[in-house]
Design goal:
The chain has helices at about 5-40, 55-75, 85-125, 125-135, 145-155. By secondary structure, it is mainly alpha-helical. It has two domains: about 5-75; about 85-155. Helix 1 runs antiparallel to helix 2. The chain starts with a helix and ends with a helix.
Length: about 160
């Protein structure tokens, strides 16, 4: 037997002795009550207080240590999850990477398209081009005034 088992057995024996003594004492109390009633005495004083029903500290400590060791043994036997070898985890990581790549590419293409639109707008719609388009429809000073009036009335 190991030292721990000896301590556990001693604590258990001490606890059992206390409980047996307490039960015997409880059984003796009715006899004592009858005797005291004959003498007209109302106070009953037990040999040992009944409220002392606590479990010995050594026994509780031993049980705690035993439980702790059992949990550690179970934890050591348990297999841990390794995401680098798990097919489900690898598939999920690949899916996340693909979604991230697609989002990045979409935003890059949208940015590039927007920049091209802005650039074409700036080149085709600057002030000089807009003035040229306006002046294209205007009559030229070399045109005949009758022709100018005819076009104006036509519109």
């Amino acid at each position: 037997m190991t030292d721990q088992q000896v301590n556990e057995a001693a604590a258990l024996r001490a606890y059992c002795r206390k409980r047996i003594k307490h039960i015997k004492q409880r059984n003796d109390v009715p006899d004592c009550k009858i005797k005291h009633q004959e003498r007209k005495c109302t106070s009953i004083i037990p040999a040992e207080p009944i409220s002392d029903q606590s479990v010995p500290v050594r026994f509780v400590g031993t049980l705690k240590m035993k439980t702790f060791r059992e949990e550690m043994r179970k934890g050591a036997q348990q297999d841990f999850h390794d995401p680098s070898r798990c097919k489900v985890c690898l598939a999920k990581q690949a899916e996340i990477a693909m979604n991230f790549f697609i989002r990045n590419k979409c935003s890059q293409l949208q940015t590039q398209l927007l920049e091209e639109k802005i650039e074409s707008h700036l080149y085709s719609r600057d002030t000089v081009c807009l003035l040229g388009e306006l002046l294209q429809d205007m009559p030229k000073p070399s045109d005949d005034p009758c022709e100018i009036w005819r076009r104006l009335l036509k519109k």
